[in-house]
Give the backbone structure.
Amino acid sequence: MPRMNAMDAVVRVLEDEGVRYAFGIPGAAILPLYQALSTSQRIEHIVVRHEEGGTHAADGWARITGEPGICIGTSGPAGTNMITGLYTALADSIPIICITGQAATGVLHRESFQAVDIVEIARPVTKWAVQVRETAQLPWVFRQAFRVARQGRPGPVLIDLPIDVQQGPEIEYDPLVDGRLPFDRPAPNGEAVAAAVAMLLSAERPLILAGGGVVIADAAEQLRELAEYAQVPVTPTLMGKGAIPEDHPLYAGMVGIQTTHRFANQLFLESDVVLAIGARFGDRHTGELHTYRGDRKFIHIDVDPLQIGRVFAPDLGIVADAKLALAALAQRARRVTPPRDAGDWVERVGRLRATMTRRTDFDDVPIKPPRVYRELNAFFGPDTIFVTAIGLYQIWSGQFQTTQRPRHYLCCGQAGPLGWEVPACIGAKLARPEQTVVGVVGDYSFQFLMEEVAVAVQHRLPFVLVMVNNAYLGLIRQAQIAYEMNFEVDIEYEGRGGHPGVDHVAVMEAMGAVGRRVTHPGEIAGALAWAVETSERRRVPALVEIMVEREANAAMGPALDRIREWEPLDDEPVSAGGSRGGQIASPPHALASST
């Protein structure tokens, strides 16, 4: 067996696993890995400005490609800076591998410089966190890391490398006889499939709830095949957005208390059987469980056995890979029934989609946020990749933006870290350089990791940032009303003709990028065209900062039936709780909207 430097062996493993980019910051305790990485002809290292930014860039890469993203840092604070990114990846089932340097094993108990037990810190927010203690284990630990990150419900892994382990003796390793470790994708039980199809076909008003697991499993084609054959409407979750085109006749909108459609909530309340696949029943989706569950029956399919029954007990649970499960369901449906025609239930989906909507055609100044998303939908085509994070702008995005394809709408759903968008745009653009990438950001979120714009400039990565700026901490301020408090933010605000205390256009220009501020709705389309053209021509990010109505809130919770842009027809049913407009349930802090 040939012998080689252990860190060279690690790099060979990374190459064989398909790694093309590694995001990170060099430091003393990780330099042996960096030295080996510098000789790679296949892996390009992207030096980020913050380790958290590196994790989010790896996350954006992974969401587009489905393959693990890589982030590297040194010991101590580098690892702790990665925790938010690890948590985000775990929450959304995204495979990333974070690699940290560490002090020598012999001094870990002596409070050595930048020696922290990062494995124990990371354990709750990873699928696997491990410190390598023997040099000969290195290639095999990395092989296992990729398998763990990919298998079952995907997720993050952390590998901690003490400096003396990295510097250890040569090991016996032959890359020609090594390869990826296999793993099984669980197929569904045949009896369970038959029971699920029977429930679905006997229902009068069935729905398929498509979660992020459908996108992760690349199962959109199988989802449409089943839905079209059985004529069952599909309601995706926020993480499942794009699993079915939003102009498809069977698209039934998005259910929830924040990123939601009125018609979707109404349809869900009328449903009698829900087939949920790859969905975790997050609380921003369900609202109050007793209303969400109602009298309807639930079939829950998930690749992770521990997800079934975690939020509530379904009537039928099936452990299976989403693609295999949907294919099996479609095959069973073809065996027991001819193709179904669209009936009254599908016709009702189309009717509510056409009538139970919210306005977006505002011409007001200051700009109303729904107008921003109307312009985005009109300007960008279905191949555009959108990236967004957390806040009112993300809630408006979920309510108003349309998505036609999987892996074209990236959102950090459960963890919701501010600052996620810019580094995620970097990862997404590297993964799909031929496609337009657009990050929809808020002013406050942009400021969290805006330094990563300099990384995109350095590596000539063009993408567009659309900032929905009310300079008002809108989502937090909206929540504060319920708690009878209102913390002010030290931000100068000079009205629609001025600018907030942070001049975001100047910030972009200071880092070598470009920006433009918009104050009137008629200017948005032209600014978007300028941003795309300038970004591509100069190979830098371009910002369109849109100054919106300062106190615009998102319609959430009971606010859904207080928006009067849609008036129900006389024969429209009343939703749960006696209100019209499709309200499902509301959290204790749900608020009325002034929009």
Observations:
- The chain has three domains: 3-177, 190-355, 369-547.
